[in-house]
From TrEMBL:
Membrane topology reported for the UniProt record: Multi-pass membrane protein
Major location (coarse): membrane
Keyword line: Cell membrane, Membrane, Transmembrane, Transmembrane helix
Descriptive protein name: Branched-chain amino acid ABC transporter permease
PANTHER family: HIGH-AFFINITY BRANCHED-CHAIN AMINO ACID TRANSPORT PROTEIN BRAE (PTHR30482:SF10), HIGH-AFFINITY BRANCHED-CHAIN AMINO ACID TRANSPORT SYSTEM PERMEASE (PTHR30482)
Organism listed in the record: Halorubrum rubrum
Chain residue ranges for the region called Disordered: 435-463
Family matches, as InterPro entries: ABC_transp_permease, LivM-like
Regions crossing the membrane: 20-43, 49-69, 76-95, 115-135, 142-160, 241-262, 296-316, 328-360
Compartments reported by the entry: Cell membrane
Length: 463
C-alpha cells in the first residue's frame, strides 16, 4: 500500500463525523487530565473537573443543537432560549415538588407527582409557550423576531420574580366543566403552590439521576459500584463525585438522542423544506409549501428541546432562582453555535464542546489549578493596585488580580474569539457543509459503469 493510499484513508477517516467528534472530545479531556496531573490534582480533584467539564459539554451541546433547528435549519433568529429553559424547569418543579401544608413552611410546595410526569409537563408547557410566541412572532423576520423572543425571555424572568405569583392557595378540588359536564377532576396534594418570587424554589424532589436509575432498575447496582469505589479508591464519601460523572454521561447520551432526532429531521422532506425556507422563504412559498406551518412546527419543536435542556441543566441543583435565567445564557449558546457552524448538527455539538471546555470552563479550571499549586495570597482590591508593582518588575499582584477576576476576563475572551470568528471564519468550523440535494442518487454513471457523486445542494462538490 502506497503512502498516498494511506493518506487518503486517513483523510476519509477524519472526514467522518463520529471520528471528528471523538478526536475533539479526546483532545479536550486529555488537556484537562494532563493539566490536573501537572498541577498535582488527586483522583477526587480529577473526577470533579471531568464531571464539571462533561456536564457543560452536554448542556451546551444540547442547547446548541436545539438552536440549530431554529437558526441553522429554518433561519429563525431566536434569542429567547433561556426563557424556554426557565419555563421547563419551573413547571417541572411545580409538578414534582412535594406538597407543603399551608403555614407549615416558608417555601411553597408542588403537586408531588413523579419526576417523570414533571419532566413531560415541563417540556409540554415549553412547547405550548413556543406556540404562543410563534403565532404572532413568525410573521416578523430577522431583527424583529429577535426582539420579540428576547422580550419574551425577560417577561418570563420577571414573572418568576413577581410577588403576584410567589405563592397561591390551591383549592381542594380542581374541576374542568364544559356545558355542565364535568370532564376532569383533580384533587391536588398541595395546599400552596407558586413560583417562589425572587427567592426561587428549592428543588426537594427526587434526584434526577436517582429517578432515572430507578426507572432502569439500576439503582441497587449503582450503589454497589459506589461502595466498591469507596473501599478501593476514594475512601471519603465518593458518591457526590461519582454522581457528577454519571450525570454528565447521561447528558452526553441525551446529546446523542438530540443529534439523532435532528439529523433524521434534517434529512426528511420536512427538514428539506425548512432549509428551503432558510435560503429563500418566498421561493418555498411559491412552490406550494405552507411556510408558516413549517416554521411554526420547527419553532415549537425547538422550544420543547430547549425546555428539556433547561430541565436537565438545572434539575440536578438544589434550588433555582430567577437570576439564573438572565440573557447571558442565551448568548453563550449562540457563541457555541457560531463556533461550530450553523446548519451542521456535528458542528453544533462540537461548538458546544469547544465553548464549554475552552471558553466557559477553561479559565475557571486554570484558576483552580494555579490556586491549588501555589500560595498566592490575597488579590489587590482594584486594577491600580494590581498594575503599580509592575513598575518594580513584580508581576505577581497583577497575575493574582487577573486570576481573581477570571469571571469577567472570561467574557472578554469570549468577545475576542467571537470577533475573530466573524472576521476570519463566519461560517464556523463546519458551517455551510455541502448537503445532498436529494435522498435519491441523481448522479450520472461513470465511464466504468459505477455511479458518480450525488448532486450537491449548492451545485458544488460533496464532501
Amino acid at each position: 500500500m502506497s503512502v498516498d493510499d494511506v493518506r487518503g484513508r486517513l483523510d476519509g477517516l477524519f472526514e467522518r463525523d463520529v471520528t471528528l467528534v471523538l478526536a475533539v472530545l479526546g483532545a479536550i479531556y486529555l488537556a484537562y487530565v494532563l493539566a490536573g496531573v501537572a498541577f498535582g490534582y488527586g483522583l477526587r480533584g480529577q473526577l470533579n473537573s471531568i464531571a464539571n467539564l462533561t456536564f457543560y459539554i452536554g448542556a451546551f451541546g444540547m442547547l446548541a443543537l436545539a438552536l440549530n433547528l431554529h437558526w441553522g435549519y429554518t433561519g429563525l433568529f431566536n434569542i429567547g432560549i433561556v426563557g424556554f429553559m426557565g419555563i421547563g424547569v419551573y413547571v417541572t418543579a411545580l409538578v414534582s415538588k412535594p406538597p407543603v401544608a399551608e403555614g407549615g413552611a416558608a417555601q411553597v410546595g408542588g403537586l408531588g407527582l413523579p419526576l417523570v410526569v414533571g419532566v413531560v409537563a415541563g417540556v409540554a408547557v415549553a412547547a405550548l409557550f413556543g406556540l404562543l410566541v410563534a403565532l404572532p412572532a413568525l410573521r416578523l423576520r430577522a431583527d424583529y423576531l429577535a426582539i420579540v423572543t428576547v422580550a419574551f425571555s425577560e417577561i418570563v424572568r420577571f414573572t418568576m420574580m413577581s410577588r403576584t405569583f410567589q405563592e397561591a392557595t390551591v383549592p381542594d378540588t380542581i374541576d374542568l366543566t364544559v356545558a355542565g359536564v364535568r370532564l376532569f377532576s383533580f384533587d391536588p396534594a398541595a395546599d400552596t403552590i407558586g413560583l417562589g418570587g425572587g427567592g426561587g424554589l428549592i428543588l426537594n424532589y427526587t434526584d434526577p439521576l436517582e429517578a432515572l436509575l430507578r426507572l432502569l432498575f439500576l439503582w441497587e447496582p449503582y450503589l454497589g459500584f459506589v461502595a466498591f469505589v469507596e473501599r478501593n479508591f476514594i475512601p471519603n464519601n465518593p458518591k457526590p463525585v461519582i454522581d457528577g460523572v454519571v450525570y454528565g454521561i447521561v447528558l452526553l447520551v441525551c446529546v446523542g438522542l438530540f443529534y439523532l432526532l435532528l439529523s433524521r429531521t434534517g434529512k426528511s422532506p420536512f427538514g428539506r423544506v425548512l432549509k428551503a425556507i432558510r435560503e429563500d422563504e418566498d421561493v418555498a412559498n411559491a412552490l406550494g409549501k405552507d411556510t408558516d406551518r413549517f416554521k411554526l412546527t420547527a419553532f415549537v419543536l425547538g422550544a420543547a428541546l430547549m425546555g428539556l435542556g433547561g430541565i436537565l441543566w438545572y434539575s440536578g441543583r438544589g434550588s433555582i432562582t430567577p437570576p439564573s435565567f438572565r440573557p447571558n445564557i442565551t448568548f453563550f449558546v449562540w457563541i457555541a453555535l457560531i463556533i461550530g457552524g450553523a446548519g451542521s448538527n456535528t458542528g453544533s455539538f462540537l461548538g458546544g464542546a469547544i465553548f464549554a471546555g475552552v471558553l466557559y470552563e477553561g479559565p475557571r479550571y486554570v484558576k483552580n489549578l494555579v490556586e491549588a499549586a501555589f500560595e498566592l495570597g490575597d488579590a489587590p482590591r482594584n486594577f491600580g493596585e494590581a498594575v503599580a508593582p509592575l513598575a518594580s518588575l513584580d508581576p505577581v499582584p497583577f497575575l493574582v488580580y487577573t486570576l481573581d477576576s477570571v469571571s469577567q476576563l472570561r467574557l472578554v475572551i469570549m468577545g475576542v474569539v467571537l470577533i475573530w470568528l466573524m472576521h476570519n471564519r463566519p461560517e464556523g468550523l463546519l458551517g455551510h457543509r455541502k448537503e445532498t440535494a436529494s435522498s435519491v442518487d441523481l448522479s450520472r454513471p461513470g465511464d466504468d459503469g459505477s455511479s458518480g457523486n450525488p448532486a450537491a445542494a449548492d451545485g458544488g462538490e460533496t464532501r
